[in-house]
Write a structure and sequence with these properties.
The structure holds 2 protein chains of 2 kinds. In chain A, helix 7 packs antiparallel against helix 10. Chain A has 3 domains: 175 residues, no CATH class; 139 residues, TATA-Binding Protein, CATH 3.30.310.80; 241 residues, no CATH class. By secondary structure, chain A is an alpha+beta fold. Chain A starts with 10 loop residues before the first helix and ends in a 53-residue tail after the last helix. In chain A, a hairpin with a 2-residue loop joins strand 16 and strand 17. Chain A contains 14 helices and 24 strands. By secondary structure, chain B is an alpha/beta fold. Chain B has a single domain, classed as 3-Layer(aba) Sandwich (Glutaredoxin). In chain B, the strands form 2 sheets. Chain B has a 6-stranded mixed β-sheet with strand order 1-8-7-4-5-6. In chain B, strands 2-3 form a two-stranded antiparallel sheet. Chain B starts with a helix and ends with a helix. Classes of the chains: A alpha+beta, B alpha/beta. At the A-B interface, helix 8, strand 4, strand 5, strand 6 and strand 11 of A face helix 1, helix 2, helix 3, helix 4 and helix 5 of B.
Chain lengths: 633, 213
Amino acid sequence: MTWLRTPPDAKPDAQAATPEGRSDAAVDVQDVTPEGHRDSVVDIQDVTPEGHRDAAADMQDVTPEGHRDAAATPRPTGLSLGVVGWLRWGWRQLTSMRTALVLLFLLAAGSVPGSLLPQDGTNPSSVAQYYSSHPVLARILGDLGLFNVFGAPWFAAIYILLFTSLVGCVLPRTLRLVGSARQPPPRAPGNLSRLPFAVSYATPLAPETALESAAKALSAKRFRLRTGPGWVAAEKGYLREVGNLLFHMALLGLLVSIGLGGLFGYKADRLLVTGTSFANTVTALDEFHPGRLVGPDNLQPFTVTLDHFSASYVTSGALVGQPAAFNARIRYSASPGDSMHSYDLAVNHPLIVDGARVFLIGHGYAPEFRITDGTGRVIFDGAVPFVPVETTGLVSEGAVKVPDASPKGLGFVGVFLPSAIDVGGKLESYFPAPNNPMVSLVSYAGNLGMNSGPSQSVYSLDTAGLHELAVSPRPLAIGQSIKLPNGLGTLTYTGYRQWVSLAITYDPGQTAALWSGIAVLAGLLLSFMVRRRRVFVRASTDETGNTIVDLGGLTRSDAAGGFEDEFAGLATEISGLHQASTDASQSPGPDLEAPDRTDRTDREGSGPSHREGSGPSDPEQSGPPDPEQSAGE
Amino acid sequence: MLRLPYFASRVVGAAVRSPRRAAVGALVAAAVVLGAAACDAGATAQDTAVGNGSSFVTGSYGTTVFRSGARPKAPDVAGTTLTGSKFRLSTDRGSVVVMNFWGSWCTPCREEAPALGTLARNFAGTDVRFVGVDIRDDPASAEAFMRTFRIGYPSLNDPSDLVALDFNGTVPPAGIPTTLVIDRSGRIAARIVGQASYSGLKALIKQVKAERG
């Protein structure tokens, strides 16, 4: 975006409250005194209203409307504004670029405590700890919502204001752009030789005829025309405004669709062991990040059963052990009672059900244990997901908790080794596939601390109330058991299963956001690549009775590339028309370097007929009289 | 968020294989906390996942009481109990039903269990029925839990969350534990998300029990 790129020559006009009126007035003056020799720099700028109006339009691109308005609006004095006036003033302030930037900064600053202080949503036990170690400070911070920053009302206020500010800024500009796209070309300035591109020649045609044929030629090139006494103004490149418009509307669309996603979407995670099922309900999810307006009853009621998971790995070469393919065979139903469908989940091949997407994002092993306690009863029999801690051999860590064992609670922590190998007395896993699946556990007995206090991770053991038991053997192969001392019980490693972790996302604004994003880009490209360019033609009779045709061209100073050729081509074509349609003996049009007007020798602007890019700020460039000026006579 | 480095390296290409990344991944993964995290539904829309996994948002916890005119109808939940007998909610129509969603791995469930066990015994012989819904558990652990806390009432074995799913569109359990008080006409009179207190639950039961209808 041209956000920070402000054409230097835009400033004078940006300050002018009514650039349109001002330039028109200037043109009028020029009309009255066509021989404006004493053009000062400022006058030149007035003569070329187009550049400035475009530049001003650019300014609008760069700086939201509201900013300028805010700058231009006089400060309200006392109560004279009235309620409506104050509201309007407030709205202008809110939708100004400055306010948007301040809000953006506040948003960033507001999230700082969210990363410095423990947060209720993610780490409640640390919050509790903070309360116990700094009771007074914690209460103050808590009242300020700093332990739940992203849910705090003040944080919501910031982003709602930011959103309003952006929408309030973009919407009126969109409307203004519609107006700009429908605008006719401006009137032709009086002195076309002042324009960056200018050419002048004599023609035997009458001025009206010359203008008419020029207009026809420009019209054939799909220029938009406006005519007046003795002049034709033509403009092309309105697609730029269309691009601008597209960009702004798409930006609005993007904001709205992101807002939609934030309000009605959610993200969730779930770990699923093969052979088991889950339903998309809050109680079944490991993580749940709902949008603002999502409640537990808004989740799509699908169920997923994981029948089989397979992973294949590269078995040789430099990439040995790297995963080659994953496939999770699932069955799902869209809602309770619906028929079950089969589906193969793979990486980047999500299941889409009822608008929600289910991605396969991870996998691992869940060793299975059967544990009996001191009374001889089976008190645990199931698979325990272990979490991979490295990728080469997929060594995984986990914990088994049996708080209700009798006479003492039992706990085990350890590692699962898919392809166990003894490397100098140290157990490692040489490959991620289960070639030699073993577990190595440390056993504990005592109080697992699960009957009160903060919730624990299921992957680790709080050993504060436990004592380690001396047991052997370690490691265990499938089918092997460890007998705990003092008749505390036995643990048998009965096998393993695989698990997958699934990410569930629902974002109702996603498709709209995608299309809006594409449209933003398209609009941006259009507005960058298409230039507004204007061509003016003036035809008049000089004192010798000759018809003098002036052609002037103008485009945005910062994107002139290509216009030079276009203008030259147009000039060639038009002058060719003017010559060819009359006297064949006259030198034909293409010789553009053959202008003609004696009365222009004293003009500053009669230098080289093609003046390229001589900015208004550079009047010195107008050189000596054209040496070829009389060639055409 | 269980974003294991495994798939990350798969998606990006085979380039990423640092053990440090793996360790970070494991840390992140550790936050998933199969059960503990599920204990705490209703987390806010934050994306930070690393923690001890015991995340819960106090704001989403609490008791909701529905006026008698505005009570959602409870679905006719049916299933098999941990001891293998059949259960259907509608057969308890005419009684006040206290339905508790729990898991033996869930700390707040263990914390509230004594209160529930005591209340069930105190209301024994009246028309108040207690039923549990055991979520994401293995039956052996669940039975051990019931022995530990002397829970005498039956619990549905619901490893696939189908009971909770049945409540979709009414007042679904918004976390574990959740306790519902269902009135005599089979409508949900109150919901307690999070740990139920003895006195709070007792008051609710008495209130619904006192209704005639």
